[in-house]
Amino acid sequence: MISAFDAVVRANAVLVRQLSARAGVHENALRALVLIDDTGYSTPTEVAGYLGLTSGAVTNMVDRMTAAGLVERAPNPNDRRGSLLRLRPEGDAVVRGYRQRYADLLTAVDATHDGDLVTLLSDLATSLYEQAGDAEG
């Protein structure tokens, strides 16, 4: 069972690497774009925490994503010195392509397993979050 899970993790890493290369962004930038899409906007500090990167690394990454037209910085109304990151249409297109690829893949797998995949993945996510909480304590 562990080897099957490890295989899924490795295969996912390969797919993320290929999708990010196709989009012309680093894997961490793709993950940041997905985070920003999930939240509607994110601060660079939130992106750094999510990706486990330093603020300097995130600043450089955001500079590159801004120059590529993927995100925009907006003033943060809660922090005069901070900014909010929002997707631009080009960034939204990258995330839509990423999500569509996963949707197609998961739909195909689900069809071969009698529609139980959503329940299985939900249960797995819940267990992973519970284990992460237990590991902190």
Structural overview:
The chain is mainly α and 137 residues long. The chain has one domain (1-135): Orthogonal Bundle (Arc Repressor Mutant, subunit A). The chain is 72% helix and 11% strand. Helix 2 crosses helix 5 (89-111) and helix 3 packs across helix 4. It starts with a helix and ends with a helix.
Percent helix range: over 70%
**Over all CA atoms, what is the radius of gyration?**
17 Å
Task: Specify the CATH homologous superfamily.
Answer: Winged helix-like DNA-binding domain superfamily/Winged helix DNA-binding domain
Based on secondary structure, the structural category is mainly alpha
The major beta sheet can be summarized as: 2 strands, antiparallel
* Low-pLDDT residue spans: none
The mean pLDDT is 92
Compute the separation of the termini in Å: 26 Å
Oligomer: single chain
CATH topology: Arc Repressor Mutant, subunit A
How many strands? Answer: 2
Q: Rough shape?
A: globular
- Return the domain count: 1
As a percent range, the share of strand residues is 5-15%
Order of helices and strands: HHHHEEHH
The count of helical stretches stands at: 6
CATH architecture level-2 label:
Orthogonal Bundle
Assign the CATH class.
Answer: Mainly Alpha
Spatial order of strands in the largest sheet: 1-2
Organism: Curtobacterium luteum
Protein name: HTH marR-type domain-containing protein
GO molecular function: DNA-binding transcription factor activity
Domain HTH marR-type: 1-130
